[in-house]
Amino acid sequence: MRLATLVTNTDFSAFAKARPLDDEKFATLITEVRPDWEVEAFWVCKGEFPDDLSEYDGVMITGSPASVTENEPWMQQLEGLIKDLTDRKVPIFGACFGHQIIAKTLGAPIVRNPEGWAHGRIETNCVALAPWSNHRNGWQLYGSHIEQVGALPDGAQRVFESPGCPIAGYAIGNHVFTVQHHPEMTKEFIADLVEEYADYVGEEVTRVARASIEQGPADRVAFANEIAAFFEYGGR
After folding, report:
1. For 12, 59, 113, 211, which has the most beta carbons within 10 A of its beta carbon?
2. Which range (1-5, 88-92, 135-139, 158-162) has the least confidence?
3. CATH (domain of 71)
4. Torsion angle of alpha carbons 67, 147, 90, 137, nearest 10°?
5. How far, in Å, are 16, 116, 117, 206, 215 from residue 200 at the CA level?
6. What DSSP line would sit under 1-12, residue for residue?
7. In this structure, are residues 165 and 111 in contact, taking their beta carbons and an 8 Å threshold?
8. Is the pLDDT of residue 203 over 60?
């Protein structure tokens, strides 16, 4: 298969540049479980959009520290692309910002998490099984967010929930699959991110995040297989 990654991550700080960027992180995530697949990135947050997505079997949309509510010109262009892809039922996977902007494009509200920051290693429970699912009851995934999807878009089925986040993932038919969290993140990256954000999110959020990371690894490879299975199923 050949996938396109639409990179939305607007963090170009020294912290980000010293570590793998999202184009590399998502390609690594997929090729760890499907080494023969091709993954090509487009930095849509910089205005770099693909001329033609018809040569790709599916699309991944990354996370970002930007808010989908900002309605920047590149976000509006991305929403137009998402609308076209969903109309044509091209398989799309969205993580964090990607999860949110797909929902927003399809009419769902974006709200703040009433419990505040979700940060670190986050329990993510399965509430409905998608047809491509490996029938696992729950996941541990790394994440960092304070905004989230407030209601399901039309035609969507809720598939995941997390503490304070009832819609932590949804599916639409066989062509949309999302998760609020970050399956592409490694333990090393989230540990560094927690320290980088310590002053920004506050002492208590940071303490909880540090403790969650020490409780054990995330289900990174297992969830990568879930994403790959989605593209295999949706591409039928």
Report:
1. 59
2. 135-139
3. 3.40.50.880
4. 150
5. 16, 13, 11, 9, 23
6. -EEEEE------
7. no
8. yes
User: What is the secondary structure of 117-131 as a DSSP string?
Assistant: -EEEEEEEEE-S--T
Four-residue CA torsion sign, 53, 173, 180, 140 = negative
Alpha-carbon 217 to chain mean position = 18
Quick check: 94 and 59 in contact, CB under 8 A?
no
Cα pseudo-dihedral 183, 189, 194, 199, rounded to 10: -130
Nearest Cα to 145, choosing from 108, 193, 93? 193
Whole-angstrom distance, CA of residue 165 vs CA of residue 124: 9
The predicted structure's pLDDT at residue 236 = 57
Q: How many domains does the chain have?
A: 1
What pLDDT score was predicted for residue 189? Answer: 97
pLDDT above 90 for 137: no
CB-based burial label for 120 (10 Å; 0-12, 13-18, 19+): buried
Q: How far is CA 114 from CA 68, 71, 118, in A?
A: 18, 22, 10
- Start-to-end CA distance of the chain, whole Å, equals 12
Q: Is the dihedral of CA 118, 124, 127, 129 positive or negative?
A: positive
Residue type, 51: D
